[in-house]
Amino acid sequence: xxxxxxxxxxxxxxxxxLDDLSLVTGDIGSLVLVGPSGGGKSTLLRILAxxxxxxxxxx
Length: 59
What we know:
By secondary structure, this protein is mainly beta. The protein has one helix at 41-48, and strands at 4-12, 15-24, 56-58.
């Protein structure tokens, strides 16, 4: 599966959680997201799963 994300931004009120995120992967079987608490990992996964709509950008 290929994953393409273009200029993804997610804001909650005045707080920007993801800011202009772009990512392109090759054919992958799995993906690991690592980062600190509050880094936007769950937000990104919710957008990719279609549970949330980004403020801007395409996935």
